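Chain and backbone:
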Amino acid sequence: MDYEPGPEIPIPPSAVRERVSLPAIFLLVAGVLNVAVSLAFAGISIYFARMSPAEFENLINQGANSYPFLKQALDQAKAQGQTLEDMRQQGILQYGIWAGVAGLAGLLACLGGIAMLKLRSHGLAIIAAALTAIPCISPLGCCGMGEAIGIWALVVLFNQDVRMAFQASTQPPPEGGPMGSSPFPP
């Protein structure tokens, strides 16, 4: 009896596309949702920037009255010498930076999902899946959805058959053009 493995039978491209399609769609949806959340962060940053110091103080005081932990944080910040204007500027900066990072990660996730669907740019798809799985870079990563989608996509992308399909789709046509003849007349 021969226990040696036989020759590997390549998986048909349609089966690979089927294997890749669902995580690619989820990666694309995660990217769109991350971009939407980043726009909300940008809106908050702009809202704080357009707010007068008196309006910001009123907003902070309303929040402190409703949430005891916020009042403690506000008292602690004041004890450290921070003014309300410092806090407003910090909020503008934090939400603005988070909007930019989340927007970029969301855009890359969208491009990575499209790349997965087309079986093109394996590296971009891996980067997009990894960024989607990292909390605080991907807003969906903070609730567990980003991790699940990103890790699922990474597992599929690191499958040997999927890698081979990506490589096969990016190889140039055979020498002489796609029809086997020279593209230039003799």
Notes: The mean pLDDT is 84. The chain has seven helices and no strands. Residues 38 and 99 are 4 Å apart (CA to CA). Helices lie at 13-50, 53-66, 68-79, 84-118, 122-133, 145-157, 160-170.
